[in-house]
Amino acid sequence: MNVYLAAYKYWTLGKKYNRFYIELGWSAPLSTDSAITQLTGDPITSNTRYNLSFSAPGGLILAAGFSFGVH
């Protein structure tokens, strides 16, 4: 479980309902337990452990995208 705070800015493109946006924020985990618990199978590699840790909750949030309005 995690909590995050983010803010965004958007710019109207073309018609008034289409937008381009950017987002910036921070995500923080609510627990300190290890995100990785392997119960069975071959041991995972250190590279796999790093990739799993990288995608776990917590850290910087950067986003950009398009929003297409339907009216």
Ranges where pLDDT stays below 50 over 5 or more residues in a row are none
Order of helices and strands: EEHE
Count the DSSP helices. 1
Overall form: elongated
Beta-strand content bin = 35-45%
Radius of gyration: 18 Å
Number of DSSP E strands: 3
Write the layout of secondary structure elements.
Blueprint: E1 2-12, E2 19-29, H1 46-54, E3 59-67
Antiparallel strand pairs: 1-2, 2-3
Write a structural description.
- This protein has one helix at 46-54, and strands at residues 2-12, 19-29, 59-67.
- The model has no long low-confidence stretch (mean pLDDT 86).
- The two termini are 36 Å apart.
- Helices cover 13% and strands 44% of the residues.
- A three-stranded antiparallel beta sheet has the order 1-2-3, with no helix packed on it.
- The protein is built from one helix and three strands; from the N terminus they run ββαβ.
- It has 71 residues and is mainly β.
Features:
mainly beta; 71 residues; 13% helix; 44% strand
